[in-house]
Amino acid sequence: MTLEEISGRLQTGIPGCQVEMVINGSPSAQNSLLIDRHHGLAAARLLRDDLQLDFCSNVTAVDWPDREKTEKIKTKQIVDGVEKEVEETRKTTIPGYLEVVYHLFSMAKKEGPVVLRMRTGNRTDDASLPSVTPVWRSAEFQEREAFDLFGIVFEGHPDLRRILMWEGFTDHPMRKDYVPPPDDDFELSREQ
Amino acid sequence: MTQSAPTEAGQDELMEISMGPQHPSTHGVFRMDVRLDGERVLRLKPVFGYLHRNHEKIAEGASYLAAIPYTDRLDYLCSMTNNWGYALAVEKLAGLTVPERAEYIRVIVAELTRLQNHAGMAGFLLQDMGASGTPLMYAFREREKVLDLFESLSGARMMCNYMRFGGVRVDCSAEWLSQTAKLVGTFGGFLDEFEKLLTGNEILMARTQGVGVLPRELAINAGITGPGLRASGVNYDLRKVDRYGVYDRFAFRVPLGEHGDVFDRYMMRVLEMRESLKILEQALRDIPGGPIMDPKARLRGLRPKAGEAYARVESPKGELGFYLISDGSTNPYRYRVRPPSLINLTVLEDMCLGHNIADVVVILGSIDIVMGEVDR
Question: In Å, how far are A54, B199, B265, B368 from A50, measured between CA atoms?
Fold first, then answer.
């Protein structure tokens, strides 16, 4: 089954579900489907039950921080009464987000991978996504890991706790802007 | 260490035990918080992180080449298959090909890895059941011979750092191949001896049959891979499904279990070792000459085009996957390991509920975990 067909099934099967194809430029050519997070759980159910994607192999997160895009725009201005072409650089900020990537396979049909992605609203107060653990148990520890190391809150997860870092640790080490404490402060940060 | 609370009846006491992180049966620093009613397990929560060093972050700060020695330290019994999984992911990401001879060498070292891992696992499982010393010693005697081969090929017994994207690091000599053939010739005899000693043993059967049953549907849903999945009767071996490398050229069978209990998981290991011997015989017979590296592969300063790739191999523990995102620079933007040891632990509680505490040790041993990979 091609990604276009899967995308069509998702859009007809779930009213209002937005699906977008993300093209992968590398030789691996593993393209993926970006699903809007409000229909994520319904999409997961449909994929498992109707399309026999019974094996959710890999669940992981990627951090995309805010990016600054610089554009050079040429404008015409009148300087000292003479029209001149002046180059202006304009900076725009593209807001960042956290992204979760799922690699699905079908054990029944021996097919795959089908790559799904979901994105959070931003990296701070809207960093939540629906948990797919009720659909695939294999996501249980992997979503806990994404919560622990990236700070993504999975709504509907049965046991969302830190898994690798200790309880009481506050930061998320896999984020791109994480700054580790100096070595001698580690014991102190543990006690806080 | 222990804490007790009254039951609903108010007579007996429930006991909470923290098994680990320093416990001989956990094969490393792993903890299980167990709630017991007498000897019976009512609840079991695994606790991880004692060996966590953020392997993924380290690899994201290093070049593509520099990540290879770190992969050795994931599942430190199986460095060769770890190398292969990572090399395969980079090859997909950068579009590299692997010469024929290197593909054969990869199959040979990967199957040798499977032999020594499964032999060690069977030995440790028996050790966990209380067969102190002897089975493990026999298993380790054979494992040593494989490690000697790794040492003469790569210079290291466990941290082999042997594969490269686009091939392998050094070529193997004709003498090494004949030594390997000699080992393959004698390994079957060891398995016969091992099985004669153990498989039909009454105590082993009593401790393992019907213990820690994993139903087929749960195994699939919880993403269990490797021998644990096949013991529950699911025919899913990546060497047959993905046919990565040159595995499509060899005749071998995939052993399947019926009951999904500890005994079946033990038998999977023994039977897989016999199939690995078949693959090794064919690979050693057919290995061609030629180069061992893709001439286009730039080991230092590799800059793959922006994009991503997911690749997976059948490691002795299960599906070992690597997911890489490139942003066009010399370091991976995202480097992710899909650790089979961690995900196979998802169902530990389900398998242990209702069994005695002594069975927990056996069930954990039958999953075959290495903490270097669980905690990363």
Answer: 10, 42, 31, 33
Contact B93 A27 (CB under 8 A): yes
Provide ipTM, 2 decimals: 0.85
Q: Read out DSSP for B271-325? A: HHHHHHHHHHHHHHHH---S-SB-TT---TT--PPSEEEEEEEEETTEEEEEEEE
* Helix/strand/coil percentages in chain A, nearest 5: 25, 35, 40
- The list of chain B residues with pLDDT below 70 reads 1-12
Contact call for residues A27 and B306 (beta carbons, < 8 A): no
CA distance B48 to B344: 13
Burial pattern B107-132, b for ≥16 Cβ within 10 A else e, equals bbbbbbbbbbbbbbbbbbbbbbbebe
Q: Which residues of chain A lie closer than 8 angstroms to B95, CB-CB?
A: 26-28
Q: What is the mean pLDDT of chain A?
A: 85
| Cα B131 → chain centroid | 23
Are A27 and B48 in contact (CB < 8 Å)?
no
Q: Contact A137/B343, CB-based, under 8 Å?
A: no
Q: What is the pTM of this model?
A: 0.87
Q: For A161-180, what is the mean pLDDT?
A: 87
- Per DSSP, the residues of A12-60 read HHSTT--EEEE---STT---EEEE-GGGHHHHHHHHHHTS---EEEEEE
Buried b (16+ CB within 10 A) or exposed e, B183-200: bbeebeebbeebeeebee
State the Rg of chain A over Cα. Answer: 22
B362 at interface of A, judged by CB pairs closer than 8 A: no
Question: Is the pLDDT higher at B182 or at A88?
Answer: B182
User: Residue B290's pLDDT is what?
Assistant: 86
